[in-house]
Amino acid sequence: MAVFTLSETKEAIKKLYPLGIPILLNGGTSDKTSVVEGVAEELGLPLIVIRLSTELPEYVGGIPVREGGYFVKVLNKDFSPAFESGAVIFFDELNRSNSWVRNAVMSVFFERTLGGKKIHTDTLVIGAVTIGKAYRDVDVMDRALLARFAIINVVPSTDEILNYLSERYPFAASIIERRFEEIARMMYEENRFEQLKPTLTLRNLEFAFKVIETYHNDPFLRKLLYTVISPDIADILLAELDISPLIRSVLAGQDVEVEEEKASLILAIISRMPLKDDNEFLNAIRFAKKIYEELGLGSIIGFLVNLATLNRDLFIRNITYIKNEFPNLKDELRL
Q1: In what helix (H) or strand (E) does residue 104 lie, and over which residues does it extend?
Q2: Does position 41 have pLDDT exceeding 60, yes or no?
Q3: Using a CB cutoff of 8 Å and minimum separation of 24, what contacts does 44-49 make?
Q4: What is the per-residue pLDDT across 264-316, written as a single tens digit (0 to 9) for each?
Q5: Residues of 297-308 as b/e, b for ≥16 C-beta within 10 angstroms?
Q6: Do 281 and 321 touch, CB atoms closer than 8 A?
Q7: Where in the chain is the domain with CATH 3.40.50.300?
Q8: Does the structure show a pLDDT above 90 at 1?
Q9: Please, what CATH class does the domain formed by 3-196 belong to?
Q10: Residues 172, 175, 177, 181: what is their CA dihedral angle, to the nearest 10 degrees?
Q11: Residue 97 gets which letter from DSSP?
């Protein structure tokens, strides 16, 4: 599981914002609020903070009022910027609220409606929880619920805490700066929270694909993927992304030098790829032959059979080349 400093949390929120993925912050008290305030200021959006532990369901979900021949929901709070021009709505203490209140706000996260009315497309909705043994009167977050969020575990760095205090109390901060790392460590242990891990569902996988589609060339991609899908799957996706430029080079006929582990992975991926033309097909075979011989990987028959399965027409068209390159495999390949 990845943890995010305050600055990393800000960056993650701003990058997830245009993707429309609901965001859940998990961390110690006050850290999350300061981040959301900073994001709202940078985005130039008004901030609406709702502390759910002190709210009633009808205050956040709307009070049904008869209007004509039907009922409409009238909101008890002023959410007008969220409907008219965009805002940041911050639902704090989500897991300190009762289930009735949580149910009342779920439509904001997942259907982007509030009181039965659609919120503006520029409105950013963020929830926050603090989970851990040190915190009382908090509910366990259901994994089916967690599967609907990008999850950011927030842990401010020592420098971020010290900079915050130095701006406000420069004299006191200068005196304790030498011991501040020790103090920060003790403070973290005292307020330790349980880190949340994204789940592995089709929805999470779609979130991951959205992130990759938009940010595949962004250095922050790794951290973003860790917010939307389980770390094991994120690492597999990242490995595939790392290997993709090498695969393109191989299929283009370029000379590629790779270590054994990556070479084996490239071969496994190419053997299960539909190739677009004769050049790619022949370049794949040349690379495979070179790697099998250099690394002593044994018989290449498995690679060729897999390659032929998805590229039957290319295999038949280039049968003469294959016979010449692998005369000892004629029987196995049934040539």
Answers
A1: helix 99-110
A2: yes
A3: 45/81, 45/86, 45/87, 45/88, 45/122, 45/123, 45/124, 46/81, 46/87, 46/88, 47/87, 47/88, 47/90, 48/77, 48/79, 48/81, 48/82, 48/87, 48/88, 48/89, 48/90, 49/90, 49/92
A4: 888 888 888 899 999 999 999 999 999 888 888 888 888 888 898 989 999 99
A5: beebeebbebbb
A6: no
A7: 3-196
A8: no
A9: alpha beta
A10: -90
A11: S
End-to-end CA distance of the chain: 51
Lateral strand order in the sheet of 124-129: 3-4, 150-154, 23-27, 124-129, 88-92, 47-51
Per-residue model confidence as pLDDT tens digits over 231-247: 889 988 887 788 888 89
The band of 63, judged by pLDDT with boundaries at 50, 70 and 90, is very low
Comparing C-alpha atoms, which of 161, 135, 141 is closest to residue 24?
141
Q: What is the Rg, in whole angstroms, of the alpha carbon atoms belonging to the chain?
A: 27
DSSP H helix total and E strand total for the chain:
18, 10
